[in-house]
Amino acid sequence: MQSPRGRAGEAPPAAPGNVARSSVTGVAWPGIPDPGRARILSLLYQLDHSQWWPPEVLLDRQMRQLETLLAHARETVPFYRDRLAVLYGRELGGLTPELWRRIPVLDRADVQAAGQALVTRSLPEGHGPMADVSTTGSTGRPVTVKSTAIMQSLFSAMNMRFHLWHGRDLSATVAAIHVLSPEQAAAAEADTPRNWVAAYPGGPIFHFDVRNPVAEQLRWLHAVDPHYLLTYPSNLMALIDHGPATGPRPRRLAQVSAMGEVLTPHQREACRSAWNVDVVDAYSAMELGMIALQCPQHTHHLVQAERVYLEVLDDDGEPCPPGTVGRIVVTDLHNFASPLIRYQIGDHAEVGLPCPTGRGLPVLERIMGRTRNMLVLPSGDTLWPSFPARLFLDVAPVRQLQLVQRTRDDIDVRLVMDGPLTADQEQRLRAALVAKLGHPFRLTFTVVDGIAAGPGGKYEDFRSEIS
C-alpha cells in the first residue's frame, strides 16, 4: 500500500500477490471483500493517510476521541464515576493534554482491585460482542479486561499496516514459535495452519511451542522452511546459537519479527551476521493490542496514535522531552468495554525526535522494558543495564547469562555453560561485569543447566528483586 503522496523514505511497494480476498463468485481480481474484511480495508485506507498528518492534527483527533471515551466511562463504568470528577464542568471540545494529566494514573493493582467495576454497564451499539483478554502475568500482576469486536478489527488493521510497512508478501509462509494458546496448540497438533493476515487470502502460519527444546525447534523450523519467523528475541538468539549444530538458517527465510521482549541492537546484529536477515519489532500488550511498530526505514518505533494515546512521563508526572527516558502511560482510544484510561503498563521508553520519513506519529527511540529490569545502585539511583554478548564470550563459552539483583549490593550471576567456570574465568568475568555495572557489587556465580523463561515465554537477562 502506497502513501497518498510521493515521499522520500516511503514503505516498500506491496507485493504483487497482495490482492484482497474476494467474496463474489467469479470475481477474483480486483477483490470484492465481504463486510467484515471491507471494514479492515477501510481502516487501512484511513491509516495510510493519517500516518502523514502533522502531529498537531493527530493530537487534536486523539483529544476528541478521548472526550467521547471519557463521557462513556463516566456514565456507564462504575470505577470512573468519581475518578473522572477532576474534569467535571469543563466545556465539550476543550480537552487538552494539560487537563488530561489531571486524571489519576491507573496501574495493574487498580485494574485487579476494580474487577467488574471496570466493565461498562452499557456497551454502545456496534462495539460488541465482548470477550475476556488476560495478560500472562509476567509482571507478577496478571489482569483480565474485556475486549470487543471493534478492537479486534482495529488490531487486524494495525497488524496489516505492520506487514505492509515492511514489504511482506502476504501469500508467504510464517512460522511462529511462542507460548501457544489452547486453540493454537490444537491447530499445531492437527497440523492445520490458518491464514496469517486479515482481508487477504494470505499464506499459512504454523505454530510451535517455545517450551520445546531448541534443537526440536530448529528441526521443525527447517521442515516448515518459512519465509518469515515470529518469536521472542531471546529464543531467536538460542536458535542462532544452536544453528551450527543443525545447519544454516531455513532456506527461504527473508525476515524475522520479534515479539514479547525488548529487542536489543546486539540481537539485531547477531541475526544479520548469522542468518543474513533483518529483525523487525512490534511493541504490544495483550490488554491493549498494538502500541508502537518499528518504522519501515529506521529501528525506532512509531506510536500507533490512531489506536492509543501514549504518554512518556518523568517522576513528577510531566511529559519527557526527546532524548530522555520515562514511564509509559497508555490509553486505549476505543475500548468502551473496559476503558483503560491513563494505564501505567510498567514499561519505560526514550522519547525520540520527529521521524525523518515525515510521518507525524510520535517516536519512541528505545523501549527499555519494565521497572524490574532496572539496576538499583546503592545510592538509590537506577539505570538500564546492558550486557553485550562480547562481554562474556571473550571470557568464557557462556551460552546464556542472567543477573538477578537481590539487594543494593548483591547480584546473583547465573551462567549456562558446557563445563565449569574456572577461577581465572570467574575473575575476568567479575571484573568485566563490575566495570559494566559501574559499581563493585558482590557477585555470586552459579553454573546452571538452563534458565527458564518467565510467564508468557519471556526471558530477562537482568531482573531486580528490590521493591
What does this structure look like?
The protein has 467 residues and is α/β, with parallel strands linked by helices. It has 2 domains: 1-361, Rossmann fold (3-Layer(aba) Sandwich), CATH 3.40.50.12780; 375-464, GMP Synthetase, Chain A, domain 3. The chain contains 12 helices and 20 strands. A 12-stranded mixed beta sheet has the order 4-5-3-6-7-8-9-10-14-13-12-11, with helices on both faces. It has a 4-stranded mixed beta sheet with strand order 19-18-17-20, with no helix packed on it. A two-stranded antiparallel ribbon has the order 1-2. Strand 15 and strand 16 (382-383) form a beta hairpin. The N and C termini lie far apart (47 Å). Mean pLDDT is 88; it is low at 1-6.
What is the compact description of this entry?
With about 475 residues, the chain is an alpha/beta fold. About 30% of the residues lie in helices and about 25% in strands.
